Amino acid sequence: MRFMSGAHYWLTSDRLALRRFTPDDIDWLANLYSDPDVTRYLGGVKDRTKSEEFLRTRILHYYDEHPGLGIWMTVERDTGACLGYHLLNHIRGESIIQIGFTLVKSARGKGFATEMALAVLRYGFVDLKLPRIAGMASLQNYASQRVLLKIGLERRGERTFPHPDYASEGPMAWFECDAYSGHDERRIRTS
After folding, report:
1. Residue 181 burial by Cβ neighbours in a 10 Å radius (0-12, 13-18, 19+)
2. Which domains does the chain have, with CATH numbers?
3. DSSP-assigned letter for residue 95
């Protein structure tokens, strides 16, 4: 049985779907950003006001400013449960497009990050015709680094970024993938 009614899902995988965030998602997002375990690699806890600002500026306005890119709610197709988010957007202060993901604790360890990240990567290369997609993770965030490697990005050392959202982190693990450079359709297919 598939729950898939109601919301507009624009990208799906076997178990997951992506939809745009709406202003009604603020309670969910504020709850996510109030969890220190979930946010330890995301710059730390955000209060409700900062979560509202993030939703408004980095998510909702971004959809119109950068068509085809964004941060999208990751939903379990069978239950309709909001599990986290996946993104394909600009690294703040840069022209570089990054892939990323965040999951609630209960969704970790089930392959969800990898499953939808593969679909997002394919979308970026096949539909948007992006020449390169990057990824970054905290040096201590081994789980995210493993996902980036599993989906076909290659570790290319460490990088720092001057934007305040990243500067305090210092060097971050840096990954890149060129459109089909050493990758073929089978590696990034969605099914």
Report:
1. exposed
2. 9-188 (3.40.630.30)
3. S
Task: State the Cα–Cα distance between residues 44 and 47, nearest whole angstrom.
Answer: 10
In the chain, which residue ranges form alpha helices assigned H by DSSP? 26-33, 36-39, 48-53, 61-65, 112-122, 142-150, 164-167
Q: How many CB atoms lie within 10 A of CB 87?
A: 22
Give the CA angle between residues 33, 7, 57 to the nearest 5°.
40
Q: What's the token pair of residue 125?
A: 């290369």
CA dihedral 146, 169, 89, 61 (to 10 degrees): 140
Strands in 79-131 per DSSP E: 82-90, 97-103
Give the angle 184-187-190 at the CA atoms, nearest 5°. Answer: 115
User: What distances in angstroms separate CA 160 from CA 55, 95, 152, 165, 171, one per listed residue?
Assistant: 25, 15, 22, 11, 5
Q: Closest by alpha carbon to 135, among 118, 116, 149, 115?
A: 149
pTM of the model: 0.89
Burial class (CB in 10 A: 0-12, 13-18, 19+), 124: buried
Which residue has better confidence, 1 or 152?
Answer: 152
pLDDT in tens, 19-77: 999 999 999 999 999 999 988 888 889 999 999 999 999 999 999 999 999 999 999 99
